[in-house]
Specification:
Elements (H helix, E strand, L loop, with lengths): L2 E5 L3 H12 L4 E5 L2 H11 L3 E5 L7 H11 L5 E5 L7 H6 L4 E4 L4 H12 L2 H5 L15 H19 L4 E4 L9 E5 L5 E7 L2 E6 L4 E8 L2 E9 L7 E5 L2 E6 L4 E6 L6 E6 L4 E6 L4 E5 L3 E5 L7 E6 L6 E4 L3 E6 L4 E6 L6 E7 L8 E7 L2 E6 L2 E7 L4 E3 L1
Parallel strand pairs: 1-2, 1-3, 3-4, 4-5
Antiparallel strand pairs: 6-7, 7-26, 8-9, 9-10, 10-11, 12-13, 13-14, 14-15, 16-17, 17-18, 18-19, 20-21, 21-22, 22-23, 23-27, 24-25, 25-26
Helix pairs in contact: 2-3
Length: about 375
């Protein structure tokens, strides 16, 4: 996978892009200004740079020139908002490989990175825009529009109908069904009292669904404002939301608008939560996990470390389950004093370009979400393929 430098003044924007790209296995560096960007580029030699036009101090054009001085072959994608004096054609003439107009879609970002950073030809000649459309003479702007329509058409086929499903008759383990939902960038799932809560990290919203015979029905929508949803858990009438950007765990009352009860500081970037009926399980980006009692100050009662550094966590009656989205792997641990690893699994149903982003178990069924795909899947245990 590629080493990618994200240069943007807005921390929220950097985090949103980081989440999309880390899910796909890329190594990410960040800079909030031009000076930092050039320093990082000189020390780490990224395979691709995502560069915002509007930066404090040096603007994007000046930083682009500095990047090309350090490594003239590095592909640079300019991120352009409204009101920039330079046109898309200007930045391409100045050495950018491509540009993206804000706001852009996750799939559009992922496709651009895949084409530029993962192609040996693109790395060998960063100043030349290599694409099948070169032969047809389609200009860069037209090429990007065609890609957008291609992705939209592909997604429409996937989501055709209220629910797209595949079921293996006579085998509960082989059951698989997909339900279209409102959220397309789900980072957390949690079941409580027959309701499924889904947190969308880009819309910064929690959605509550009711499970019905024909699928999932949206019951309520809770916009949270500037909250990066890393994990959610429901304990009684309280919804806990982990925000890895602010390094907090918020307790919110399950009521209209989800009023904040209290915000608890976390020692790390907590991005996984689960409530087992007694303890709130938490895990940060370094794999530091803890059991905390809701209703208290969330002081850890038990602490331990998970070597796989998961971004998702779930405990059923028999095992502790964790997942690493970027690798597409689900890990099973015994519920002993050491949480001994007991198996590593991948998913049977492939969705290329849409990596696993959230999961939960309920009554022997596995519920899955994939980044950029507006569906939630319900599957039997046969969906897990042991390595």
């Amino acid at each position: 996978m590629a080493r990618i430098l994200i240069v943007d003044e807005e921390p929220d924007m950097r985090l949103a892009m980081r989440n999309v790209l880390e899910l796909r296995g890329h190594e990410i560096f960040e800079a909030g200004d031009g000076d930092s960007a050039l320093e990082i580029a000189g020390e780490n030699r990224p395979d691709l740079v995502l560069l915002d036009m509007r930066l404090p101090g040096m603007d994007g054009v000046e930083v682009l020139a500095g990047l090309k001085y350090i490594d003239k072959s590095v592909p640079v994608v300019m991120l352009m908002g409204c009101g920039h004096s330079q046109s898309a054609a200007d930045v391409l003439k100045l050495g950018a490989s491509e540009y993206l107009q804000k706001p852009f879609e996750n799939a559009q970002l992922a496709a651009t990175v895949k084409r530029l950073a993962e192609s040996p030809q693109a790395r060998a000649d960063g100043e030349k825009q290599l694409d099948f459309t070169e032969k047809s003479g389609i200009p860069p702007a037209g090429r990007r529009i065609n890609l957008r329509y291609f992705l939209a058409a592909s997604l429409a086929l996937v989501l055709a109908g209220a629910a797209v499903y595949r079921q293996v008759l006579g085998s509960s383990a082989g059951y698989y069904r997909e339900y279209s939902v409102a959220a397309a960038n789900i980072s957390a799932l949690a079941w409580a009292d027959g309701k499924l809560f889904a947190g969308d990290r880009l819309t910064q919203t929690v959605y509550r669904y009711a499970a019905e015979k024909d699928g999932l029905r949206l019951v309520e929508t809770y916009p949270l404002g500037k909250i990066q949803i890393g994990g959610i858990a429901v304990a009684g009438d309280t919804l806990y939301v982990a925000d890895p950007l602010r390094k907090t765990i918020d307790a919110r009352r399950l009521a209209p608008a989800l009023p904040l009860i209290k915000s608890f500081p976390a020692s790390g970037n907590v991005r996984a939560l689960f409530y087992d009926g007694e303890y709130l399980w938490t895990c940060d980006s370094e794999g530091n996990a803890a059991l905390r009692r809701p209703g208290s100050e969330l002081t850890p009662s038990v602490s331990f470390r998970l070597q796989e550094k998961p971004d998702q966590i779930f405990k059923d009656g028999n095992y502790l389950w964790t997942a690493v989205s970027s690798a597409g792997k689900i890990y099973r641990h015994k519920l002993d004093n050491s949480f001994t690893p007991d198996g590593v699994f991948t998913l049977k149903t492939a969705r290329p370009g849409f990596p696993l982003s959230a999961f939960a178990w309920r009554e022997g069924r596995l519920w899955l979400a994939r980044d950029g795909l507006g569906v939630i899947a319900e599957a039997g245990s046969g969906e897990l393929v042991k390595e």
